[in-house]
Amino acid sequence: STVIKTNTVPRLRARKGGEPIVCLTAYTAPMAQLLDPHADLLLVGDSLGMVVYGLPSTVPVTMDMMIAHGAAVVRGASKALVVIDMPFGTYEESPAQAYRNAVRILQETGASAVKLEGGVVMAETIRFLTARGVPVMGHIGLLPQSVNTSGGYAALGTKDTAGWDAIIADAQAVAAAGAFSIVVEAVSEPLAVRVTESIDVPTIGIGASAACDGQVLVIDDMLGMSNRTPKFVKRYAELGVAIGEAAAAYAAEVRSRQFPSEAYTYRLKGDNRGPGGT
Ligand code: KIV
Ligand code: NA
Fold first, then answer.
1. Domains of the chain, earliest start first
2. Which residues does 3-methyl-2-oxobutanoate bind (predicted)?
3. Which ligand sits nearest to residue 207's alpha carbon?
């Protein structure tokens, strides 16, 4: 069935300069269900390579991974717009390659839009996709898929203003090409201000200050379930600690035969004997 989302691509785009847009990543249906009432946009990020699959970077993430998790998130979401990252190597070669893979992602998941990394270099591809029915979210600043050329995940535009113009030009090229919003990753606040005021579509910051039109965080990071600790991650819960405590309590009760107690045990009707049928 066709679900008309409360949060459509044009409605998200129209929120430039308005109430901040709330985004989180999600990789599974139950998490999407929990986050949907609170988020305007759920991003199935290729960060799943690291946070779900234990890969060293996002570079090895595949179309099959993004489609399996994307479809799960779409099944769990109802009002939030679902956007799916295009994996490294599936869109950079040509606009035609990008279109073929983006269409596969939308058709096989039911999501509303894709996200891809890159500024001026990707503008032609973004124009090709948006002109042919594929909404695109841009991603500029720190580009995790380029870790092998950049050499790391250092924030940009923090030492001086060298390089600011290139990032502003990236934002303008991606917006002019038709992107409905742009993720801005790991840049200094004054650069985020310049980027946000340079374009007429919403900027979604991750480590890009409160100047952006919205914010996104990786869900496992903000729930305290990952060991990744970039400066920009605020931990809103300590679920990693809670999971460790629960597993330790279970292990102790299994070893002492406290679990499963009577309340968790199926008995034969009329059998009033004690544990183990003795
Ligand atoms: O992969 C991801 O999770 C992302 C966001 C954090 C922007 O690209
Ligand atoms: Na990503």
1. 9-237 (3.20.20.60), 241-277 (no CATH)
2. 46-47, 85, 115
3. 1
* Nearest in space to 195 (alpha carbons), one of 160, 232, 165: 165
Ligand 2 centroid–CA 196 distance in Å is 20
Contact by Cβ (8 Å): 181, 171: no
The model's pTM: 0.95
pLDDT of 274: 63
The predicted-structure confidence for 210-256, as pLDDT tens digits, reads as follows 999 999 999 999 999 998 778 999 999 999 999 999 999 999 999 99
- Give residue 1's pLDDT band: very low, low, confident or very high (50, 70, 90): very low
Tens-digit pLDDT profile for residues 76-125:
999 999 999 999 999 999 999 999 999 999 999 999 999 999 999 999 99
- Measured in angstroms, how far is the CA atom of residue 140 from the centroid of ligand 2? 11
Q: Please count the other Cβ atoms lying within 10 Å of the Cβ belonging to residue 227.
A: 8
In 3D space, the residue among 193, 222, 221, 223 whose CA is nearest the CA of residue 205 turns out to be 193
Catalytic residue among 92, 124, 185, 197: 185
ipTM of model over 0.95: yes
Atom 1 of ligand 1, residue of closest alpha carbon: 45
Nearest ligand to residue 226 Cα: 1
